[in-house]
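We modelled the chain as a single entity of 568 amino acids. Its sequence is:
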Amino acid sequence: MSKSGSNLITNILKEAQAYSSMDIIESYIEKGEDLSNLPVQPLYTAIKSLSTDLVASSLSKFSPKQRQVFLDLDLWKKDDLDPNSFSYWIDVYSKCNDDKIKSEFLNSTEFALFLKGRMSIWTFDSEDPQYPDHDFYFLTEDNLLLFEFEEDYPYIGEVKQFVADLYTEHGVEGAYQYIFKIVSEGFLNMQEEEYRFKKHRLNDFGFVDYYDALELCNPFPSLSHINFFISKKEAHTPNIDREAQNQCLDNNALIAFKDRVDELSEELGKVNSQERLSYLQFNFTRLINSSLTMEDALKDGALAMTRIGKKSLAYMKLGFSYILENTKDNSQNKFTDEGIFSAFDFVEIYNIGHSLILFEQKRIKKAMAQNGFNAENDSFLGEVISAILDESFNEPVQYISNKIDNTKSTVDSYEELLNLQNDISLIGGILPFARGFFTTFKELEESNKLMDEYYLNFTVADIDFEALLLSTFVNFSNGVKLDGDSGKIGLLVSELKKFSLETMSNQATLESKIKEFTQSFGLNSVHKVEDYLQTLVQFHLSGYDITHLTEEEFRHVGGPLLLNIGSN
């Protein structure tokens, strides 16, 4: 086993951790030490957490390239300008006492794009003055240009001073020509051109452009495409330059990986080619950076990066597990000796895992849409199904292994994927029945046949599918039919106590009644429906000594609808 291979991810984590301490980076800054050789990504994250005064006093300690990248990162949000984030640097450079560095900023394309993105700049004729109908503007000292700004913009004093500094540096005529050129030059062309330059600059420091990130993390269109891709995969190792190999990630994006990559590391240990390992290290870094870029997580700070890291790890482990599952019984398995990393890279494995999750989420969305459920009415489905839905769109996706005590696990293995698929198949099968209950319930509600005073433990607004289904099941188990003429749906407290004594207290009897019920109502075609009904009974009724509860205490018991005798 290759020791360097098995330590690949661990070494990436150690390198990131070396720059993770805010105290270390802040001490560098406070001591005035040179910061030009520090990796840009962790340095950027660190300085955005420091005071602007401290960062301003340290600008000279960064290299010009580093200062440029800082501006690049904050000027853009995905593929568009982000003047709000860039205002951080307006504040920083306004406090900078180094005229050379301040001049570098004032004459930068980034500052020009900021002005065009944030301000409205007009030529001004002092002989025929046309003023805005508000007070949120200022004139340049030659009275030839008018800057109009938003009422609540907090850094207008700083911007006004920067414009005055341009006049001081370039003279009246030179400053006017410089700013007029910004005004007159095609904004979109200027923006597109600078975006291309920015893309190449950031690539040199290991960052990934938004469009490149989308392309890199492009999911597969179908499961058959994934399986075909796996079956036909051959080893291919692109060449990478030395600068690309020296990229470094921010530790916050890797916290989730600590002590959770044993299987990946074991498989990496089978790779004997140092060239392949170097490529995989580069590929891993590029994957994490792409994930951060797609959600603009660098700007959002440590919590956002940690969340992205957790999701990336889950997709990676799921894709890895799926590949192992689909190649383990292949007698011609070409990955046995050097492992799957001899052919698959981290991006490909991630995309497989990501795609598998997307397929399941699409199944849910399709079933919900076909049955008329959306964000406005999905609460009708009840707590158990709602929890499954919520966790199925969590990041990373969670499977609720125990619906009673809400025990959850991340869907990051083939086994957990199968568990999630079982839940989603249940939802897809039960939704048509839920739609029928919903339609009937709404008809009764609109015809005023349902009243709050009818029920002991529910208001009409709180009645959901689980309450209606449980009420129907308990009545069925007790041999009671619903009174369709009265419009009242539910059961008496005495009937719930009977169910508790005769059915719920005996597991064999409960299972038998559930089986009879599902067959009688045509529910037996729904995947895992008997387990679902078992869960509903336990979720809503376990933990109570139902036979000894007072009527007042039943007001706080969920589950089936309990009729209020006083309303009869």
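As a brief sanity check on the tokenised model: The mean pLDDT is 88. The two ends are 78 Å apart (CA to CA).
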